[in-house]
Amino acid sequence: MSPSVRKSDFVHVNGVNLHYLDWGGDGNALVFLPGLGNTAYIFDRFAQRFTSKFHVLAVTRRGHGDSDYPDTGYDLETLTEDVKQFVDLLGIEKVIFAGSSMAYVEICHFAALYPDRVQKIVYLDAAYDRTKFRKFEEQYPLKGVRHPAAGDPCFSVEEFIAYTKRISPEIADIWDDLYAEEILHEIKITPEGKVVDRISDELNRKFINISRNYPPEDSQTKAPVLSIYAIWDRILLPDYLTEEQKTKLLEFGKGIRLSVQRECIEKFRQDVPHARIVEIHQGHHWCFIKHEELVFDEMKAFLLE
């Protein structure tokens, strides 16, 4: 299926308009939720691969992409209620969730509140107790070190894309036509003609605070779970760093950061003993893009069990 076949539409739920994509398909509803900063379009290639067995959709949360940006509602209860009203409006009684990154907090909380509504869950490098992230954030060795071009204004989409690739090696590593489409829904043009992120720094901090202050409710998850982890043993070094800074970043990544990830994985394993856990070494956070075939095979096998 080509991306042009899928349906792009909006629903009005919980006082806001949420954008969603619908790739069609027969069978139980499989709903993808994107991570912080991303939109439904990030799944445009991957999601359609499941339409032979499932009705596949993806929804963009409030404050993201083409969805509404209200002044309020940036708390876990409201975000979770958005998801609930979305599946309610579409007549989905039991849902299969697949969530990337921050989507974990909404899915985990939904599963705790409405266990009978969740058929299965797939976490795509998502199931982390982010309250533990403070540990490595506090010890990050390059605080205050920024790309020399950070903050430079961009006056065209092409300039913004080039800028994004320069300051984010992770995004540059997976850049293709998919992300080129995705980024068009992450940006806006100001009255002054600048191309900027649609999510302001203030709003971004609100979303980060939600995830950092959420004590996981994994032990209440009753549905079958597949949790895929991209192991942080591959570090992409920005080219603007000095050799000394690169050394410090490598040591930090292989030491403190990796140990925190391992702690999170083991805690999840204990809290959800029935979960199937897959670790991708030399992994990429957007594992469903970088490791598409591996992730697809694991998801397909899990969903068809």
Structure description:
This protein is α/β, with parallel strands linked by helices. The chain has helices at residues 76-89, 103-113, 133-138, 157-167, 169-173, 177-184, 201-212, 243-271, 287-290, 292-303, and strands at residues 7-13, 16-24, 29-33, 55-59, 95-100, 118-124, 187-189, 195-197, 225-230, 276-280. Strands 1-2-4-3-5-6-9-10 form an 8-stranded mixed β-sheet, sandwiched between helices. The protein has a two-stranded antiparallel ribbon with strand order 7-8. Strand 1 and strand 2 form a beta hairpin. Helix 1 (76-89) packs across helix 2 (103-113). It is globular, with a radius of gyration of 19 Å.
Name some characteristics of this structure.
305 residues, Rossmann fold, 37% helix, two-stranded antiparallel sheet
Give a quick rundown of the structure.
About 35% of the residues lie in helices and about 20% in strands.
How would the blueprint of this fold be written?
Layout: E1 7-13, E2 16-24, E3 29-33, E4 55-59, H1 76-89, E5 95-100, H2 103-113, E6 118-124, H3 133-138, H4 157-167, H5 169-173, H6 177-184, E7 187-189, E8 195-197, H7 201-212, E9 225-230, H8 243-271, E10 276-280, H9 287-290, H10 292-303
Parallel strand pairs: 3-4, 3-5, 5-6, 6-9, 9-10
Antiparallel strand pairs: 1-2, 2-4, 7-8
Helix pairs in contact: 1-2
**Taking all residues together, what is the mean pLDDT?**
95
CATH-defined topology? Rossmann fold
Our count of domains comes out at: 1
Strand content: 15-25%
By CATH reckoning, the class would read: Alpha Beta
By CATH's scheme, which homologous superfamily applies? Alpha/Beta hydrolase fold, catalytic domain
Sequence of strands across the biggest β-sheet: 1-2-4-3-5-6-9-10
Structural class: alpha/beta
How many helices? 10
Fraction in helix:
25-40%
Task: State the separation between the terminal residues, measured CA to CA.
Answer: 24 Å
Low-confidence stretches: none
* CATH architecture label: 3-Layer(aba) Sandwich
Major sheet size, sense and barrel closure: 8 strands, mixed
The Cα radius of gyration reads 19 Å
Count of DSSP strands: 10
Helix and strand pattern? EEEEHEHEHHHHEEHEHEHH
Q: What would the principal axes of the Cα set say about the shape?
A: globular
